[in-house]
Amino acid sequence: QVVLAIMLVWLCGLLNAIGVRLVGYTSTLWTAGLAAPFVVLVAFGLPRLIHWQLPPKGLDHHELIGRLGGALTVVIWNFCGWENLSVVAAEIENPQHNYLRAVAIAVPAVALSYILPLAVCLQGAAGGAGWHTGSFAEQGVQIGGRLLGTAIAMGGALSSFAIFEAAILWVSRLPFVLARENYLPASLAAVWRGRGVPGRSLVLCCAVFTLLIPLGFITLVVFDVFFYMLALALEMAALIRLRRLYPRRDGLFMIGGGRAAVYLVALAPLFTWCATFGLAVSRRADDLIIASMLALSTWPVYGVLRRYYGGPPKFQWHNTEGLAVAGRIVDVEE
User: For residue 253, which phi and psi values (nearest 5 degrees)?
Assistant: First the structure.
């Protein structure tokens, strides 16, 4: 499994090295491959939906609290990251229009893709306690035959691949930006002119991901959600501060509804995060403690890197780097 995981990491890196357009096309293809068997499952299970009832037997209170924490962590991991595409805005044509269109399609589609198949599979079940990894494929065999079960299992593999491929797209731009701001070696800011891709930054990210593979899925999910929500807290703090400083600032996107709407958008995800990790700690605190220690180390590491590489200059300056936008190379001005 470790060897297979390493191969998948570098395959995703290779696809990203070819360019953002290929990542978009392949992600669309993987999504279609994942969704098709579940559409068939829901179609075959339509009678179950018509007569659907909640499973009568649940978990006891203590077990429910612990599992709910783990479940919410995975849910956040699956649904987070909508704003991360902002780091590749320079490589997308008309992001103000295309982002909103993509979100308007993706959010309801993702929600329904979870709700409808799960409702079909749990109809008539004695309870949800027996649900485990692979249950969707088993239910597919029962409802539509072995071929459908196999297709669902393959769709699950495609889903993981598509998520990771898209994650590398935006994560690989972070060392690139930090290098341009003089927090990391300048060599990481190099762009491969043929493809408009920050190649060295991409290779570095793939190497780090390879080293993280032995930690396992659950630990990595906890770490990922923990650091993601910390980063999101910083983003929301910046949002509130910018709205105070520039209440009429024009930009690609603007949150309507006044100050109350801005606070609601900023604080609601953080309340969910706090509740999730409060529940997760009641079951297993080791991963959260390690993640907290790593988070506390970021400030001294930041200070060392800024001192060593110099940090951003105090005067305004301009630099251009060629990035790919819809298959062509353009200059992005800082």
Answer: -135, 145
Q: Which residues have a Cβ under 8 Å from the Cβ of 236 and sit 6 or more positions away?
A: 265, 266, 267, 269, 270
- Phi-psi bin for 52: left (phi > 0), alpha (psi -120 to 50), beta? beta
For 322, residues 6+ apart whose C-beta sits below 8 A from its C-beta are: 191, 193, 196, 329, 330, 331, 332
| Domains contained in the chain, number | 1
Query: Alpha-carbon distance 52 to 26, whole Å?
Result: 36
- Domain around 11: 2-333
Token representation of residue 106? 């993706």
Classify residue 234 by its DSSP letter: H
Give residue-wise pLDDT tens across range 279-313: 655 556 677 778 888 888 888 998 999 999 888 87
Contact 107, 317 (CB under 8 A): no
The C-alpha atoms of residue 304 and residue 21 are separated, in whole angstroms, by 37
E strand or H helix that includes residue 162: helix 146-171
Q: What percent of the chain has pLDDT over 70?
A: 79
Q: Are 70 and 304 in contact (CB under 8 A)?
A: no
DSSP state of 329: E
Length, in residues, of the chain: 334
Q: What distances in angstroms separate CA 295 from CA 82, 230, 238, 298, 301, one per listed residue?
A: 22, 9, 19, 5, 10
